[in-house]
TrEMBL record, chain A:
It comes from Hadarchaeum yellowstonense. NCBIfam families: gatC_rel. InterPro entries: Glu-ADT_subunit_C_archaea. This is Uncharacterized protein.
TrEMBL record, chain B:
The keyword Ribonucleoprotein does not apply. It is an enzyme of class 6 (ligase). Belongs to the amidase family. GatA subfamily. The active site is at 75 (charge relay system), 150 (charge relay system), 174 (acyl-ester intermediate). The lineage of its organism: Archaea, Methanobacteriati, Candidatus Hadarchaeota, Candidatus Hadarchaeia, Candidatus Hadarchaeales. It comes from Hadarchaeum yellowstonense. This is Glutamyl-tRNA(Gln) amidotransferase subunit A. Allows the formation of correctly charged Gln-tRNA(Gln) through the transamidation of misacylated Glu-tRNA(Gln) in organisms which lack glutaminyl-tRNA synthetase. The reaction takes place in the presence of glutamine and ATP through an activated gamma-phospho-Glu-tRNA(Gln). Heterotrimer of A, B and C subunits. It comes from the Archaea. Residues 21-447 form the Amidase domain. Keywords: ATP-binding, Ligase, Nucleotide-binding, Protein biosynthesis, Transferase. Its EC number is 6.3.5.7. GO terms for molecular function: ATP binding; glutaminyl-tRNA synthase (glutamine-hydrolyzing) activity; transferase activity. It catalyses: L-glutamyl-tRNA(Gln) + L-glutamine + ATP + H2O = L-glutaminyl-tRNA(Gln) + L-glutamate + ADP + phosphate + H(+).
């Protein structure tokens, strides 16, 4: 496992080195984070989903939860540092 | 000659072929052929019942949608309520989607029948269709060879006529690459044209959902179904629905200026270029003016792309920690997924110097400027899709060799423009696709060129 991980890390770094080499002589310029300049970030609040759709969503979500408590609530892992206290 | 998408649609609408018969026939073919091809991970158990509901609407003379009764495969990274969106990974192998993605709602509203979930490269990390946790997909158009990726299952399913249409996703060529290798049609829409809500991201600033089909009309039909603004999507162009099928009625290429670049020949296998050059001559014969454009930094896009995608992928996969559902991604993923996570983590840790990610975003600016400048002179740019022929399934190649499949497709994602692929011919019996790149929202011109070539045969 250790050797496999090292090999993957080596190949992961290869592309970084290729990239650095290919940009050696490029001048600094503005970054493009998204190719769009108009975002729909302040979208209007829509109508809530129909009751039937919300009920089905809840049923489906509960069916794929790995663990739940006696009330049917999602139970997630307790952090290791918390157990140690 | 196989039946075209519109001809089949007319038969269903006219009652000559029932939607249920169409679904039953697809299921039979999948049963017969897919054990060898492996293009589907899961089938929709309600497909036949949904088709019967469409038939009832037709019999009652009610209005039916534009996809009435057509069978549609969905890439396994798009949420379809009640079916598993596995991303072809052990991480999500038991994740049953609790909701429909926006594109799925739109398909259902037009009476399309979801036939099942297509195989793919794990988390869309791959260009070969070999990295799926559910096994590799074969190429029906060149058996024994990779179908390309990452939308491998969708492209293979179309090539084998297992369904009518498929939805794929394209982050660096994942629709166009398999469309080319499988000899079919595919299109990556302009970034922001199709809502991504409900898509499990690979690279959020690059991903787009798009169609795969056996003909250009099918691609236009599925694109017009899924495209257009949605309030559920935060990064979206303000575009209303466009009727691409209507625009395809224009058959001539007279007055169109089509760009080519010598850069394509430098990066591509000469045997592939010969086929592509033949298609360019055909475009000239159809009345287009061929113009040389300058793309000197095209190949710089590849390594910049892999840096950007690794950082975004690392960020996007932090939610797969095994706490709410599924299994922790690093514990069960394949090598390529792990490679991208490790690379993304490494770059993110070092980023305080602005050396990698920020610099890659500058290269993105460079590639985008170059392509947009070219589109001031031409309507579309044509060239090869993939610079080399697909390898035989199971052949060991290095990650860099694998990434080299993407040289010609990643620039469109970096620039956010659209690009389609149509079959150009064959080399050694293996299909080769012509890529038609268009400006932002240039889908009508791209489809028009693809349609003209398809009609010219």
């Amino acid at each position: 496992m250790g050797e496999r991980l090292r090999e993957i890390e080596r190949s992961a770094e290869e592309i970084i080195q290729t990239f650095l080499k290919s940009t050696e002589n490029l001048p600094e310029m503005k970054e493009t984070y998204y190719s769009l300049e108009a975002y729909n970030v302040v979208r209007p609040d829509g109508e809530p989903s129909p009751e039937e759709e919300r009920r089905k969503f809840r049923e489906r979500f509960i069916s794929i939860m790995p663990r739940s408590d006696e009330k049917g609530n999602l139970r997630v892992e307790v952090a290791a540092w918390l157990k140690e206290r | 000659m196989a039946e075209g998408t519109l001809a089949k649609l007319a038969r269903i609408r006219g009652g000559e072929l029932s939607a249920a018969e169409n679904v039953a026939s697809a299921l039979e073919r999948i049963q017969e052929l897919d054990r060898r091809i492996n293009s589907f991970i899961e089938l929709n158990p309600n497909a036949l019942a949904e088709a019967e509901a469409v038939d009832r609407k037709i019999k009652r003379g009610e209005r039916v949608g534009k996809l009435a009764g057509l069978t549609i495969g969905i890439k396994s990274n798009i949420n379809v309520a009640g079916l598993r969106a596995t991303c072809a990974s052990r991480t999500l192998q038991n994740y049953v989607s609790p909701y429909d993605a926006e594109v799925i709602k739109r398909i259902r509203a037009e009476d399309g029948i979801i036939i099942g979930m297509n195989n793919m490269d794990e988390f869309a990390c791959g260009s070969s269709g070999e990295t799926s946790a559910f096994g590799p997909t074969d190429n029906p158009a060149a058996p024994g060879h990779i179908p390309g990726g990452s939308s491998s299952g969708g492209a293979a399913a179309i090539a084998a006529r297992l369904c009518d249409l498929c939805l794929g996703t394209d982050t660096g060529g994942s629709i166009r690459n398999p469309a080319s290798h499988c000899g079919i049609v595919g299109l990556k829409p302009t970034y922001g044209l199709v809502p991504r809500q409900g898509l499990i991201d690979l690279g959020m600033s690059l991903d787009q959902i798009g169609p795969l089909s056996a003909d250009v009309a099918g691609t236009a039909l599925l694109l017009e179904t899924i495209a257009g603004r949605s309030d559920n999507e935060c990064i979206m162009l303000k575009v209303d629905r466009v009727n691409y099928s209507e625009l395809l009625r224009e058959k001539s290429l007279k007055g169109m200026r089509i760009g080519i670049s010598e850069k394509f020949s430098e990066l591509t296998d000469p045997a592939i270029m010969k086929v592509i050059d033949g298609q360019i001559e055909k475009l000239r014969d159809l009345g287009a003016e061929i113009v040389e454009v300058d793309l000197p930094n095209l190949e710089r896009g590849l390594s910049a792309y892999y840096l950007i995608v690794s950082v975004e992928f690392f960020s996007g996969t932090r939610k797969f920690d095994g706490r709410k559902y599924g299994r922790r991604i690093e514990d069960v993923c394949g090598e390529e997924v792990l490679r991208r996570i490790l690379r993304g983590r490494y770059i993110s840790q070092k980023e305080y110097r602005g050396k990698f990610y920020q610099r890659a975003l500058q290269v993105r600016t460079l590639v985008r400027r170059e392509l947009l400048a070219a589109f001031e002179r031409v309507d579309v740019i044509v060239g090869p899709t993939v610079p080399k022929l697909p390898h035989r399934l199971g052949t060991k190649i290095t990650p860099m060799e694998m990434y080299a499949y993407d040289y010609l497709t990643v620039p469109a994602n970096l620039a956010g423009i659209c690009a389609g692929v149509v079959n150009a011919g064959r080399v050694n019996g293996i299909p080769v696709g012509l890529q038609v790149q268009g400006r932002v929202l240039g889908e009508p011109e791209v489809l028009r060129v693809m349609q003209a070539l398809e009609a010219a045969g």
